[in-house]
Amino acid sequence: MLRKEQNDLLTQTGPGTPMGQMFRCYWMPALLADELPENDCPPVRVKLLSERLLAFRDSNGRYGLIDEFCAHRGVSLWFGRNEECGLRCPYHGWKYDVTGQCVDVPSEPDESGFKDKIKLKSYSLVERGGVLWTYMGPPDKQPPLPEWEFATVPAQHNFVSKRVQESNWLQAMEGGIDSSHVSFLHRGDLQSDPLFKGAKGNQYNLNDARPVFEVVESPGGLYIGARRNAENGHYYWRITQWVMPSFTMIAPRGNHSVHGHFWIPIDDQNCWTWSFDYHPVRTLTTAEVAAMRDGKGIHVKYVSGSYRPLANKDNDYLMDRAAQKAGKYFSGIEGIAMQDASLQESMGPIVDRTKENLVSTDNGIIMARHRLLRSVKAFIDKGVLPPGVDPVHQRVRSVAIVLPPDVPYKDGAKEALIARPGVAPASV
Amino acid sequence: MKSESARVTTAEEARFRVSYPNSTPRAVKVIALDRKAEAVVKRLLQLPWNGASFFTASAFAAAPDQGASFSMTGWLADLAGLAKNLLDEVDTADLVVMVATAGENAQAASIIGEACSLKRVMTTALIVGGANASDEVLSKTLSHLRPWALMLVIANADDYIEDMLIALRA
Fold first, then answer.
1. Is the CB of residue B130 less than 8 Å from the CB of residue B156?
2. Are A253 and A196 in contact (CB under 8 A)?
């Protein structure tokens, strides 16, 4: 349970809100690089943290993320012409470069200097790992570029997708650290999904449906460990990483790729769910990439020409009651991603946490909220930089490992919890 | 589907969620396992709670030897020092939270855990002071708690327990 004011604090991320200001400390994924595939390609409308923006790539390959609307009469620059190192409004020809600087006002003499007085708000936009990242905070506070491992491995090791989720970012993110739902909601998928099946760890999962959880604070957020019995009195641990504010990484299975998410607020009632799959030391196979494109694992199929899932709230997520009854899909919804998203969206755009009844296995969620609240207060009151901004906090891995019974997993898996180039992940 | 008067939850529809209490207060018994944890629990006692009560087992830190006879009556004390019957307290609990300090003796967890197991009551253990504890020290505390805690939290800040209990409607 959260008090209403706490719920409002964590779920409101628009300009000027405390949580919105904290989000603006971080590099956030804004677009797939494929959305701006070539110089002078069509611009893309982007809404992030409740601000309407426009992304474009100019004639020299520079990326820009600027206020969507022309400073003249408020026309959406999405209709603009992307030409000769700038985006030109089709209404009266005002033109802007990637920094938002107006570089041409045809109705005014060049010598007047009028164009120099016009500048749209703009944010940094850089490509890394097939993703265009933006930093929306004060320019003088811009942190080093993101160093999440998936964004630094060779392109052939990595697959990234995104989908619109019609809910607030926090309830979506909380699903990523709610390890106890896996034994129910996703129980049918461990044995059948091509991106999960076959791992020895799956057997530990299936043999022990009541894992014991341990939540431990990490430098950037939390480790959430799920413990199951293994051979000879040892424990099988699945350790999820949560790094503030909204990065989660799920423990790997066998030699499958490692995967995780970012949840980025579009506005207070919608968010982007970013899903990445990568392997630190090998190329993804053609079959793996085909499965990911086909919506397997943590990815989805789309409504054609969009990033909206094919199964969505307007078609009741293609509910299959027969499959539910037969136990094929526990909720009747196909696919891990939409099994999660359908239930999270069903809570309403912003779930009323004053009505919830958490139990002790929800301590991962409780601790994450605690850290967010503590960090946002320290940031707003004292300017303390929140965890997760420092690239050291980003060089992390989730882990699946078997350890002796009395070993604290954060120590037993200490090396494995850190991303090291060229080193295989700890996985079972 | 056409017979349904409401479909998936939109922002507009979310306003119509039934406004009626969906739970009754639960009994959460918070037990300090050592003297330092007792100080944390004593601080919590000063706050308003719905159904939380606070105890200490710090005077009984050493569990009896295997097979040795002992009585659970009077094994627990409230924070005023009044002896309490562990089994009676557990019997009326929805959740037992054990609070231990990293490096301190947490053997009492076995007695409390045994009682909870007997009465089928959920247990959570919280280790405070874990941030500065060495691996060895933490390992010792974990070895006492792990067999008996169905949820275990190692918190850097002592104020986490307060947030956790509020979140659990204690």
1. yes
2. yes
Residues 6+ apart with CB under 8 A from B74: B83, B84, B85
Q: Give the pLDDT confidence of A245-266 residue by residue, as tens digits.
A: 999 999 999 999 999 999 999 9
The helix (H) or strand (E) run that includes residue A344 is: helix A336-346
> What is the CB-side half-sphere exposure of residue B28 using CA atoms within 13 A?
28
Structure tokens at B121: 């009551």
- Specify whether the CB–CB gap between A29 and A262 falls below 8 A: yes
Which residue among B8, B130, B166 places its CB closest to the CB of A346? B8
What tokens does A345 get? 């969206």
Q: With contacts defined as CB-CB under 8 Å, which chain B residues touch A411?
A: 135, 138-139
Residue A336 predicted with pLDDT over 80: yes
Helix (H, G, I), strand (E, B), or coil: what is residue A413? coil
Nearest CA-CA partner of A25 in A169, A138, A145, A170: A138
> Considering only CA atoms, which of A272, A263, A246 is closest in space to residue A47?
A272
In this prediction the ipTM stands at 0.91
> Where would I find the beta strands (DSSP E) of A193-352?
212-217, 221-229, 235-243, 247-250, 258-267, 270-278
Distance CA(A240)–CA(A175), nearest Å, equals 12
Q: Which domains does chain B have, with CATH numbers?
A: 25-167 (3.40.50.1440)
> How many residues comprise chain A?
428
* Residue B70: pLDDT band with limits 50, 70, 90: low
What is the helix, strand, coil percentage profile of chain A, to 5?
30, 25, 45
Say how many residues make up chain B: 170
CB contact under 8 A, A408 and B163: no
Asked whether the beta carbons of A103 and A17 are under 8 A apart, the reply is no
Helix (H, G, I), strand (E, B) or coil at A158: strand
> What span, in angstroms and rounded, lies between the C-alpha atoms of B160 and A370?
7
Task: Work out the burial of residue A307: count CB atoms within 10 Å of its CB; fewer than 13 is exposed, 13-18 middle, 19 or more buried.
Answer: middle
Q: Which amino acid is at B61?
A: A
Angle at A223 between CA A222 and CA A226, to 5 degrees: 140
Which is nearest to A106 in space by CA: A122, A82, A90?
A90
Say whether B135 and A411 touch across the interface (CB within 8 A): yes
CA distances from A125 to A31, A274, A373 (A): 9, 17, 28
- Tens-place pLDDT, residues A77-118: 999 999 999 999 999 999 999 999 999 999 999 899 999 999
In angstroms, the CA B72 to CA B75 distance is 5
How much helix, strand and coil, in percent to the nearest 5, is found in chain B? 30, 20, 50
Q: Do A349 and B10 touch (CB under 8 A)?
A: yes
CA distance B168 to chain A (A): 5
